[in-house]
Amino acid sequence: NAGVTQTPKFRILKIGQSMTLQCTQDMNHNYMYWYRQDPGMGLKLIYYSVGAGITDKGEVPNGYNVSRSTTEDFPLRLELAAPSQTSVYFCASSTRGTNQPQHFGDGTRLSIL
Amino acid sequence: DAKTTQPTSMDCAEGRAANLPCNHSTISGNEYVYWYRQIHSQGPQYIIHGLKNNETNEMASLIITEDRKSSTLILPHATLRDTAVYYCIAHTGTASKLTFGTGTRLQVTL
Fold first, then answer.
1. Mean pLDDT of B17-35
2. Cis peptide before A39 (omega within 30 of 0)
3. What's the gap in Å between the CA of A96 and the closest CA on chain B?
4. Fewer CB in a 10 Å sphere around the end CB: N or C, chain B?
5. Is the pLDDT score of A1 beyond 70?
6. Between A and B, how many CB-CB pairs are < 8 A?
7. Which of A44-53, A92-101, B76-85 has the lowest mean pLDDT?
């Protein structure tokens, strides 16, 4: 039972570099989400998707891009890394409809130096 | 999502029941009460949720007051591995953000 898998687990980037955080789920969930969690804080929604080809902005989308070409995968791209993007990034998924919990991956810890 | 209020921290002896309270006095009729926990450095883990009836699963029980303004998460026999931050969230369960507040830090001790 893999659930939601995120790679890499850790990464250090230099300012201005770009990278893609990978997220895949094997539960056939329609909905997927990207959150970030800064130290000592709650999670903030970056982007979400209700199905392949459909994405929408969350609370803090600036500096990020997403795509959803398949049901399973929802990658998050940082184009020009900035120190303010140092955070832990969590991907989550849920099935369609109301009354559905979100299931989270173990996160990617990203440091921008 | 309706605002929820939880105590900042609680202690519980191993083997005893841990009762974690949550106030959600402005919860709307279509919002469920969800509980998640986050063990250090891991992703949030879904525990249980309910609308107005009490719920029980293999992890915990959820007691919701009749007026739905508050609820209690019960871990019947707490273990050291239950040490975590517990979040109570009012949410419709649709495709939208979960609002994680500061939660309750539960420390289970020997």
1. 94
2. no
3. 7
4. C
5. no
6. 60
7. A92-101
B95 and A98 within 8 Å at the Cβ level: the answer is no
Average pLDDT over residues A75-101: 92
- B44 and chain A in contact, CB less than 8 A: yes
**Contact check, Cβ <8 Å, B98/A98:** no
> What six digits make up the tokens of A109?
């810890």
pLDDT of residue B91: 87
Strands (E), B1-110: 9-13, 18-23, 32-38, 45-50, 55-56, 61-64, 70-75, 84-91, 104-109
Tokens of B40: 């250090």
